[in-house]
Amino acid sequence: MELFRRKDGKGSAGPAGANRAAADGNHRAVTHRLTRDLARAESLARMLAASRAAAVLEISDYLAGMYIYEWERFSKFWENQEAIEELLQRLCRISPQRWHQWIEFYDQDRQKNEGGKPAGLFGLPIKEKPGGKPLELSSDLKAVLKRAEEIAPHHDSYEGRSIPILTSECVLLSIAQSDASEIGGKLREAGLDIAGLEQAARNPKHAPLHGADDR
């Protein structure tokens, strides 16, 4: 996933960090940006969806992408680590062996602190679907991201407009609070620390484009 830079040289999510236009090429208004980590997690989510030949990108793919890419950061929100890993493995139909391979690969990729998008599954490029067109978001995932826009405390300018900056915590909180998908209930049942997550989402310690959220 390409990332663009602010004119002041500090990292910011860019054309691919802003929410994607429709896969068929139709333009629609950009309504949010993604932090660098969330953009990379979304790339992984798309790879996960592509690996099972999905027709659309689902909430479960997005959730697994965030968790795998940022597993150390996210683990603090669950007391029972095994329970949430097993839940996400089932939701995205990933074998335990492959799940831990993903975590290991992306942990190494993140530690290298290299710019640009991850290379793909264990270094091999993956196209989302024939023709290389990005997967459309499911209606449930669109609703989740819309709710995350309302949660996000920080904004940035885009073409003269103020748009929210989505962090992984904002998206996770939106998923957990969603009434349209049963995944939120399953996350809470797995012991998600809603209070701690909401604090992290609504009152981050750093501004997302210039602090710890934009590593």
Give the biggest sheet. 3 strands, mixed
Report mean pLDDT, rounded to a whole number.
77
Q: Helix and strand string, N-terminal first? A: EHEHHHHEHEEHHH
What is the oligomeric state here?
Answer: single chain
User: pLDDT under 50 segments (min length 5)?
Assistant: 1-16, 20-27, 116-130, 210-215
CATH topology: Double Clp-N motif
CATH architecture: Orthogonal Bundle
Class by alpha and beta content = mainly alpha
Strand order of the largest sheet: 1-5-4
Number of helices: 9
Shape descriptor: globular
CATH superfamily: Clp, N-terminal domain
The number of domains: 1
Based on CA atoms alone, the radius of gyration comes out at 16 Å
